[in-house]
Amino acid sequence: MVKLIAIYRKPEDVEAFNEHYFNTHSPLAAKMPGLVKMEVGTIYGTPMGDSDLHLICEMYFESKEALKAALSSAEGKASGKDLMGFAGKVVSMHMAEVHE
C-alpha cells in the first residue's frame, strides 16, 4: 500500500480555499482510478501551539504502479490541473509507502 500526501499551508483566503477544495477539487480527486481511500484533515495546531499548515489529504493506493496509473489518468490530470490552479503556491506533494 502507498499513499499520495498533499500538505497545504494556510492560504490567504481560507474561506474561498475551503469552498473550492471541498466542492470542486476533492470530488475531482476522488474520481481517480484505483483510489482505495481518501482522508482529509484540517490542521488545528501543533503540540507547541499554532501551525502554518491548513489541510492534509492522504490518498491510498494498492501499489506504486496503481498510484502512477492514477496520476496519469484523465481524472488524475484533471485533478492536478485544478490543484495547480487554485493551490499551487500552498501545496506540497509527497508519496510514501505505508507500513502497518
From TrEMBL:
Residues 11-87 form the EthD domain. It comes from the Bacteria. InterPro entries: Dimeric_a/b-barrel, EthD_dom. This is EthD family reductase. It comes from Paenibacillus alvei (Bacillus alvei).
